[in-house]
Amino acid sequence: MSTHTTTGSSTSLGTTVDPDRTLLVAGGTIHTHGPDGRVEALAIRGERIVHAGTTADARAALGRVDAEVDLAGRTVLPGFTDAHSHPVMYGQNLAWADLRPEVVGDIDTLVDTLTRFAADLRPGTPLRGFGYEHRRLAEGRHPYASDLDRVATDREVYVMNASGHGGVVNTYTLNKYGITAGLPDPAGGRIGRFADGTPNGELWDGACDLLTGPDGVKITNHGPNFHLDDPEDVMRGHLLRAQETYLAAGVTTVGDAQVSRRELEAYLRGRDSGALRMRVSAYLTSALLDTALELGLTRTLGDDLFRVQGIKLYADGTLGGWTAYFPDGYAHDCCHHGQLYHDPAEYADLVLRAHRAGLQTATHAQSPYAIGMVLDAVEKAQADTPRPDPRHRVEHCGLPTDDEIARMRDLGVHACLQPQHHLRTGDGTITALGELGHRYNPSGLLAAAGTSFAFSSDAPVAPPAPFEAVAAAASRRTVLGTVLGGPELR
Known about the structure:
By secondary structure, the protein is of the alpha/beta class. The protein is built from 14 helices and 21 strands.
């Protein structure tokens, strides 16, 4: 993860900090990104580091020292940047029933966990859970609607898969939203079905548009829809709950990698009220590209605390959910190919329009085919409208080929990897793809080629835990003990 050395703007911690109060920090190992690397002391005035150097020079820079912190040999690091994450979604999921593999190992336990969680909800309140991993359930499958009917038949029940790209609902929810055998799969999404066409309860990606109601956020074929609405005060709680988790982990800047009007409203309210205490760079969902261009949005818009940074797009699906696109099929099922959200021409047009407007793009792409789509589109956009360092990004970038890694370097395209993904789902990726799965997240190859990359959590898919991410990248060991690939990938 990348880092920065300031502690925040004067508004990032509200109005309670005296801008003239001074603090000296010394007595340990202090790492900076400055030319000196490690320094003895930090001089802080208000919320800004005004000097980093020797203890004597730090004292001199302050003149008056109101307080001192003796590190007693401890280490200070700059704040981490989680370059790809979903804070509001993460806070929302933290308020749901916990269905992670560490908690739920089979469908009966999942049902029991939801039933206990429902006991604390008001009658009729939708019941939601997050984090089940179907490949680590004893049954080796997703729950069915009928499984969730054991929890409730008089309210909505929705369990979101650990990938965040969809999940399963109960029969009540299927009926409420008119999800029947006769309803076709929506653009960019899939309705899970039994052999006779009857919905089995699974809803994926754009099909989750069906759950947001007539006035809710719609994503269509621009990615997964996890933008379930809540009242304003509840949304504020989601943001603050997540924010405390990020800050406790040392994360002080976050890139929100899919922002709809729901998240934008939450951030702006937090910014205006002083509740937002971490920096946020927002990437608007490409479903809002037309709106952004109509408003005349070019480059970044905002301040040091919150800014609209660019546009988030999707090329293919997920490795964790086995929806990443492989035209020749998966190793465990040659008839299963995954999905593309756009055909290459449609996708390239989205990138071109954003690029012409001066906007940075960040595209979810996992398979070699999808990563190639991104690079082709960026190359075409740069040929059409040359821009110095447009900093287009490939999000996840799970399985780039050697040639694609070199193309990324030559085009100035940046990769954003999540080592915690292969920690949690690397074994499932090997099951799906065979030997190719061992190449998942090849940060060592990117580094050797001189291709720029960053680490991130993709929370809530994994928690914002920078040291876990670094350890996963270094060891390439999964939670089941499998080591992915050789040392050149580290």
